[in-house]
Every structure is written in C-alpha cells, then in structure tokens.
Design brief:
The protein has helices at residues 6-12, 17-26, 40-60; strands at residues 4-5, 37-38. The chain is globular and about 35 Å long. With 61 residues, the chain is mainly alpha-helical. The protein has a single domain (4-60), classed as Orthogonal Bundle (Arc Repressor Mutant, subunit A). The protein contains 3 helices and 2 strands.
C-alpha cells in the first residue's frame, strides 16, 4: 500500500483538506496537519469508505 500524508490522501479520494482533517480526527488522528503521515490502517479505512460511498451514489443515478 502506498504511503500517504493527510494532503495526499485527501487528493487521492478527491476530498477537500478541510473535510479530511475532521474525518481523520474521528479515526484517532486528533490535530492532524496537512503534512502528517497517515497510518496505513487509517488510510485503508478512508479509501475503502470513500469507495463504498461513491459506489452507492452511482447506484442511485
């Protein structure tokens, strides 16, 4: 799995950085900064969740 910073993960899932930071805080990364490294397990959870969300939105169309 690729290594991510908060900013690169936000870019990967096409989220605004301002939305990614609170999401990561709920996943245990309190006070995350844009250049902070994201643990692989957290990055994987974010990627999987966003993919599932996007897939469900496409089914509604």
């Amino acid at each position: 799995m690729a290594s991510y910073t908060v900013k690169s993960l936000a870019d990967e899932v096409e989220m605004y950085l301002e939305d990614m930071i609170p999401l990561l805080a709920r996943l245990g990364m309190k006070d995350a900064t844009h250049d902070q490294k994201v643990k692989p397990a957290i990055a994987s959870a974010v990627l999987r969740t966003v993919k599932t969300h996007n897939d469900s939105l496409q089914k509604l169309e």
